[in-house]
Structure formats: structure tokens, C-alpha cells
Design brief:
- It is a single chain.
- Helix content is 41%, strand content 23%.
- By secondary structure, the protein is α+β, with helices and mostly antiparallel strands.
- The protein has a single domain, classed as SCP2 sterol-binding domain (Nonspecific Lipid-transfer Protein, Chain A), CATH 3.30.1050.
- The protein has a 5-stranded mixed β-sheet with strand order 3-2-1-4-5.
- It is globular, with a radius of gyration of 12 Å.
């Protein structure tokens, strides 16, 4: 899956936390902004309440269930800048997307 496909799927699945702006920062591979204020998902970089930093390959492994989120966090492969609660709420949104895919 490409970042463009991921952004489109997240938009279709309304994968944002209402009233919050969360950025998935993939470093040199770009970012996806989940804008719960405007209720949209974009590949534009911008200000966010919470930033989740993770490499694109690690993200794909995480999304496929091949990488444990807590293990990734503890090892520094996944970093969260901002409100940890936002990141946890996003986790439940992403779980719902995964269930819809199956």
C-alpha cells in the first residue's frame, strides 16, 4: 500500500479523532495529517496536536500486525510528541479500519 492509498482509505474510513489534528510523520517518506477539526485526511504537512513519528516500513509492519505497537514505542521505533491520549484514541480508529478490511 502506498501513502496515497493509505490516505484515501483513511479518508473513506473517517480515520481521525474528532476535534484533534494528528500527524503521522514518516520522516523522509512524508506525512499524513488526520484533521479531526476539518474532518479530512491529507498528505500535507502541518501543525498538529499530536505527532506520531514512525518509519514508513515500520508503519506498514505495524498496520499488518507484524510489529507490536508497545514494543515499537519502547524501542524508540515509534515516538509520540503531544497528547498520548490522542494516540491511543487513534489506535482504536485504526483497529476499526483493519476490521473493515478483513
Amino acid at each position: 500500500m502506498t501513502k496515497q492509498e493509505l490516505a484515501k482509505r483513511m479518508q473513506h474510513g473517517r480515520a481521525w479523532v474528532p476535534g484533534k489534528r494528528i500527524k503521522l510523520d514518516f520522516g523522509d517518506d512524508g506525512a499524513i495529517l488526520l484533521d479531526g477539526e476539518a474532518q479530512r485526511v491529507s498528505q500535507q504537512d502541518g501543525a498538529a496536536d499530536t505527532v506520531i513519528r514512525i518509519g514508513w516500513d515500520d508503519w506498514r509492519r505495524l498496520a499488518a500486525g507484524e510489529l507490536d505497537p508497545m514494543g515499537a514505542f519502547m524501542s524508540g521505533r515509534l515516538r509520540i510528541d503531544g497528547d498520548m491520549t490522542d494516540a491511543m484514541q487513534l489506535g482504536s480508529v485504526l483497529s476499526k479500519l483493519r476490521a473493515e478490511q478483513n
